[in-house]
């Protein structure tokens, strides 16, 4: 059992100034400050549009892509909080993830996924599939869909809905277990089949 704080890199699929997803990450950082240190990845909009012709793997690369990949590698775990846009994953977030496919920063990385949106089901399923195919470690307890997020979080960064607060606390505990190797591999969600 580790004694230092677990380093989490948090990524918000919304880059909006008063984003509820960014506020949710900040609320989680306050809840979990004893066991986690959470830093928010700020460079999502600086990443170039993904193009395999520009993806040379680890050696030659855009400095923003390199910084993103390094922050992922340095993190013990990743927390993604995202809204749904037009029944899908926000393009900026998917673009960022596509930059990690060849270099595999998500492979074996403990990940918690929260889709916090008006509805969110389709983006959530789609992103889960993506995260599993790139070999992230996710269990059913480290993924959470929060619908009607606007009604469950206040401007003081408090999760006001009790059930949501319980589920978020459970998610944090489960992410800790995965980082500490306390969750058997059989508890992880299996990768989907490509066909
Ligand atoms: C372009 C656009 C498309 C949206 N499409 C959906 C959608 O398909 N499903 C949904 O649940 N919410 C949708 N929403 C609403 C967002 O989920 C909601 O505004 C959410 O709070 C945005 O997250 P944020 O506060 O972190 O920016 C959409 C919002 C925008 C701006």
TrEMBL record:
What's one GO MF term for it?
A: FMN binding
Q: InterPro entries annotated for this entry?
A: Flavoprotein-like_sf (IPR029039), FMN_Rdtase-like_dom (IPR005025), NAD(P)H-dep_reductase (IPR050712)
Report the Pfam families cross-referenced here. Answer: FMN_red
GO-annotated cellular components: cytosol
NADPH-dependent FMN reductase-like domain: residues covered: 6-144
Name the domain of life this protein comes from: Bacteria
**Gene3D superfamilies hit by this protein:** 3.40.50.360
Name the PANTHER family on file.
CHROMATE REDUCTASE, NAD(P)H-DEPENDENT FMN REDUCTASE LOT6
- Provide the protein name: NADPH-dependent FMN reductase
């Amino acid at each position: 059992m580790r004694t230092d704080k677990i380093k989490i890199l948090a990524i918000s699929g919304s880059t909006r100034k008063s984003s509820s997803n960014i506020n949710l990450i900040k609320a989680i950082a306050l809840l979990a400050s004893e066991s986690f240190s959470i830093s928010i990845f700020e460079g999502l909009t600086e990443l170039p549009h993904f193009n395999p012709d520009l993806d040379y793997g680890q050696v030659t690369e855009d400095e923003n892509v390199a910084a993103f990949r390094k922050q992922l590698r340095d993190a013990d775990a990743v927390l993604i909080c995202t809204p749904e846009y037009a029944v899908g994953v926000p393009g900026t977030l998917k673009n960022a993830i596509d930059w990690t496919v060849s270099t595999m920063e998500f492979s074996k990385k403990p990940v918690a996924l929260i889709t916090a949106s008006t509805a969110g089901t389709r983006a959530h399923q789609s992103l889960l599939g993506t995260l599993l195919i790139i070999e992230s470690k996710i269990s059913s307890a480290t993924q959470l869909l929060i619908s009607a997020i606007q009604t469950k979080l206040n401007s003081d960064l408090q999760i006001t809905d009790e059930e949501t607060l319980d589920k978020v606390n459970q998610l944090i505990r489960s992410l800790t277990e995965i980082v500490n190797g306390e969750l058997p591999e059989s508890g992880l969600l299996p990768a989907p089949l490509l066909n």
